[in-house]
Design goal:
single chain; alpha+beta; two-stranded antiparallel ribbon; 4 helices; 65% helix; elongated
Length: 142
């Protein structure tokens, strides 16, 4: 609702001045507040569920990446893990390193992801450097 408010004052020359302005007054509505409270609670629960689901999916993907890197390393070291038909083990290691470097070059704000990428890259570079040729050193420098 709207209420007129009247104020009176005096100018420096002694004249009386009156000002009237309308002021809006809000009324608290309990049913609207309860509805808002329940909607905000529902939003909080949905956000919590979504966040938990995304965290779980991120952990699952991290495990899959770890498994993939392990299989690449085992193949490079001559172990028996199902072979890829397209790349040799050395090419697969180089390609893996290239992909990890590509992600590190992106502007990623997630510190945990950057830390994981660096750990994976360290593992793969260690594999290359264990039997490195001049070509391997040039590849890593590039």
């Amino acid at each position: 609702s709207s209420e007129p408010i009247e104020e009176e004052g005096e100018c420096e020359d002694g004249n009386t001045v009156v000002v009237t302005r309308d002021s809006k007054v809000a009324e608290y509505n309990d049913s609207v507040a309860q509805s808002l409270r329940s909607r905000l609670k529902q939003c909080k629960e949905t956000l919590t569920e979504d966040y938990s689901l995304h965290c779980f999916r991120a952990e699952v993907l991290k495990v899959k990446i770890d498994e993939f890197l392990h299989s690449v390393i085992v193949r490079q070291e001559g172990g028996v893990v199902e072979r890829t038909l397209v790349y040799s083990s050395a090419e697969e290691v180089r390609l893996t390193i290239s992909v990890l470097f590509k992600f590190l070059r992106k502007d990623i704000q997630d510190e945990k992801m950057v830390r994981d990428l660096k750990q994976w890259l360290d593992r793969m570079v260690a594999v290359v450097l264990s039997e490195a040729t001049l070509y391997d050193h040039l590849f890593l420098l590039n």
